[in-house]
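Database export, one record per block. Field names are fixed; values are copied verbatim from the stored entry.
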Amino acid sequence: MLWIAFTMTGMRISLSLKKRVRILEETVVFLNALSSEIKFSKNNIIKILSDLSSYKSLNNLLYLDCFASVTEYADFRNMWIAALKSFPYYKREEKEKMLQLGNQLGVTDTDNQINTIKLFIVFFENYLNVAKAEYEKYGKTASLFGLFTGASAFILLI
């Protein structure tokens, strides 16, 4: 039983690192899509986020779901803050960056919004590179460590 517990812990750590990479990849895709939508669409930010919430390639960004069936006259700021606060997959710094982005969306002119999003794409690409490095460094190690620790504990108990 102890062997299974250690093995599962190692696998869970590895899977959480992998999920983090996926979330950050989708965030970069989201930011690029958001930039394009702002540039070429004349819709307001609520409508744009509502449209983006239906993208299959963004299905891990659960905070977009709150915009799926919202009217164009909803309170964007409060929805954005509430959605991000309930999203557990960003680290504190990443969440703060997304909140800062939300403060700029729909407030400034189109060019300033696009330039701001480009800046945030750079931030999130850096976060993604760090997350990929962590997964490469610790992902497989965590699984193997859990397996070997569990096997060692099992052998010692016998």
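Remark 1: The mean pLDDT is 85.
Remark 2: The first helix runs from residue 2 to 40.
End of record.
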